[in-house]
Amino acid sequence: MEDNIGSLWPTEIRPQIQSPLNILKAQAQALSQQTSGVLQAEISPVLTRRGEDKIIFSFDIVVPALDNYRRALFIVEQAKGLAYPATLEAEFFKNQRELDPFRGIEPGNKPDNRADNDQEFIQVLSTVLRSPQVVSLAQSLIASANEALSEKPLRQISRAPRKT
Amino acid sequence: MTLLYFLKRHNKLCLQVVNLKTILFWNLAKKQNALEHLPCLALTHQVDVFLLAESSDDLSPVLQDINKLGLGTYREADYEKTKVRAITRLAKRDFVHRYTSQGREVAIWRLRSTVMTPPEILIAGVHLPSKMGGNSVEDQASVAMEVSQEIAEFEDRSHHRNTLLIGDFNMYPYDPGMTLATGIHGLMTRALAELPDREHRGQLRRRFYNPMWGLLGDRTVGPAGSHFWRSSVLHNPHWGMLDQALLRPSLIQYLKDVLVLDFDGTHNLLGSDGAPDKNHLSDHLPVILRLNV
Fold this sequence. Notes:
The complex is a heterodimer of chains A (164) and B (293). Chain A is globular, with a radius of gyration of 21 Å. Chain A has helices spanning 2-5, 20-34, 91-99, 118-129, 132-151, 154-158; strands at 40-46, 54-63, 69-79, 86-90, 114-115. In chain A, 40% of the residues lie in helices and 21% in strands. With 293 residues, chain B is an alpha+beta fold. Chain B has eight helices and 17 strands. Chain B has helices at residues 2-19, 32-35, 38-45, 60-67, 137-158, 176-179, 190-193, 249-252; strands at 20-27, 49-53, 75-76, 84-88, 95-100, 106-112, 120-127, 163-168, 186-187, 198-200, 203-205, 208-209, 227-228, 239-240, 243-247, 255-260, 287-292. A six-stranded mixed sheet of chain B has the order 3-4-2-1-17-16. A five-stranded mixed sheet of chain B has the order 5-6-7-8-15. In chain B, strands 9-12 form a two-stranded parallel ribbon. The two termini of chain B are 29 Å apart. Chains A and B meet through strand 3 and helix 5 of A and strand 5 and helix 5 of B. Strand 3 (69-79) of chain A pairs parallel with strand 5 of chain B, so a sheet runs across the interface.
């Protein structure tokens, strides 16, 4: 009798679901690996900016060669205790809204920057990370970092640790 | 003994001159003509750091002009085109771009100091949304809250609060975004600014001193504000102090002076009606301050 009913649970409920924070951590690690550590990313919780019922993470690029220059790239907002829906606020979406102010706000339409599950979050995040603004910024920061590294005196770059 | 006293005194005076840093903020309103006044301003006021809003993308022509004056080598000091851009004659190690916010409306530089502990100050340059763009006072207050939080977070990362906040806030000193304890929290007197952090809903809200209150109106040195609004609307304060410089309490004792400029040393920056010459220059006037740091 029970076997005939089958599962009524939607397929979105899976054992492998990742939280936004875990996905962000993986991308921070990927950035460091891909740039040989020239660019690093830090995720920090911003608990207080928009009320206590929300959790906000800021995803920043940090450039060690530029005196740890920090560039806030985007923020991710979710309700306290709920991984999804999560909203990603980035310059990319702001520019899109400026071009089309009514985009995503019609009744029944979901905003482009909202993800209701991890697959959607990966998609939204991928859109931002591959956006022209982010690619251009990352390339510029790497170029500036390489310039700064080449300007540093040799002794600062190649000095071997002193034996004790 | 007298000579020793003289040398000590002389060294102290020299040290004071070396420590003096002149910082000038100007919203250029995308006017190339306004940019051409930078060399005169540099020469007249020995400006160490220019912070420019709404400047043209290419600053190299004006850099060439300033560098002909022999006042030092001025350079761009930002890693990307933020809404407030910096030009400085300070050495690379003495003035460093440290942070840019997501929307690029907040940029923070570190200025090396010989008198502060730790030996640096943070200069946060901002250009915040205008009411002209359709933002209400409430919208502006909401942005101010986020900016205030961002600055506090960066201060915490830097382990100090030696911060100068300067820029075009597009708000008056008395607008809620500027005065709210949850916003910029800019207070009009040193005594108010030096009170302990204010506790609100279990969180400590740090304060800024806003010396621009002391420059409003025509009974003070300089023009009545930094911006003039030509409009026939019934509620029009005409002169507005949209461009402001605020300091954390730890920096107040090092503030030598702050002024709105209507003259670059050679040319008048006002039009024939006594307001900023928006036809040829910017509708904003420069704000200059000197810090003994």
